[in-house]
Specification:
4 strands; elongated
């Protein structure tokens, strides 16, 4: 099992969510986060442009069985892409074990 952590643009979230559901990834968690990166967003207020290094993003945490890893990564790379600085990052790490509290299932069965 793998844990995929993705930081994406908030504007791409609905598209990413729909694409994940289409490939069978129906459960994941997400948070609104603020970070510092290479992108510098400009804000205009009353005709004056302000630059800020704080960038609003959405953080996704997805745990998948190994056969779902490549297709999940592919969907994230395709749907979160704009080609501009600030598209985000994807991190993959190993998960040793997973348990479903309600049924006491473990491993890949707990992800279904």
């Amino acid at each position: 099992m793998k844990k995929i952590e993705a930081i994406i643009r908030k504007s791409k979230f609905d598209e990413v969510k729909e694409a994940l559901h289409q490939i069978g990834v129906t459960f994941f968690s997400y948070w609104d986060v603020t970070g510092v990166g290479n992108e510098k967003e400009g804000h205009v207020y009353r005709g004056v442009s302000y630059s800020t290094s704080d960038i609003q993003r959405r953080y996704l945490s997805i745990v998948v069985s190994d056969p779902f890893l490549d297709r999940t990564i592919d969907v994230l790379l395709k749907t979160a892409y704009t080609g501009m600085v600030g598209d985000g990052k994807i991190f993959v790490s190993d998960i040793q074990e997973t348990y479903r509290i309600r049924t006491k299932e473990k491993g890949s069965d707990a992800l279904k």
